Amino acid sequence: MHYSHLEDYIQHIYKSIKISSPSQLNMTTIAERLGIQVSYGNVSFRINDEIILRRGTKEQQWQEFGHEVCHYLRHCGNQLSMHPLFFELQEYQANNFSYHFCVPTFMLLKQKNFNTLSIARTFNVTESFASRRLEIYQQNHIYGSNSHLNQIL
Questions:
Q1: d(Cα 18, Cα 143) in Å, to the nearest integer?
Q2: Residue limits of the IrrE N-terminal-like domain (predicted)?
Q3: What is the mean pLDDT of the chain?
């Protein structure tokens, strides 16, 4: 299986913090091992090494955590003062990252059932998130379309 740069990057992150299965995808543990402080508020955002998560279901918080981890690991600067197009790019990247971070391809491939409900339950994400993640997987690995785009994202 050929992984995209992003998939390799996320697998490396998890390997470096000794996480290899869906049962180990614990937000508190991951935050601690990455050196991130997690707090809760009315909106989700990252500032320095702290992620503030909007209160919601555990699935919503996990998905937003994945989004904010991207900003923590891959972005710098204050989004409030950057050009709107650069802001949009960072948000697109963080959204894409969250699908791969919350449902890592190397873990997904070990699953017996490849359907929305089993992905949602196994990876503690919403069904709509699981459905979109399955579409991304199929586009990148089964149909092969957009695989060249993953190299630049």
A1: 31
A2: 56-135
A3: 88
Q: What is the full DSSP assignment across 79-135?
A: GGGS-HHHHHHHHHHHHHHHHHHHS-HHHHTT-S--SHHHHHHHHT--HHHHHHHHH
| Domain locations in the chain as residue ranges | 5-150
pTM of the entire structure?
A: 0.86
Whether the CB-CB separation of 20 and 10 falls below 8 Å is answered with no
Residue 99: partners with Cβ closer than 8 Å, 6 or more residues away: 66, 129, 132, 133, 136
- Structural contact between residues 19 and 30, judged by C-beta atoms closer than 8 angstroms: yes
- CA-angle at 121, arms to 123 and 99, nearest 5°: 35
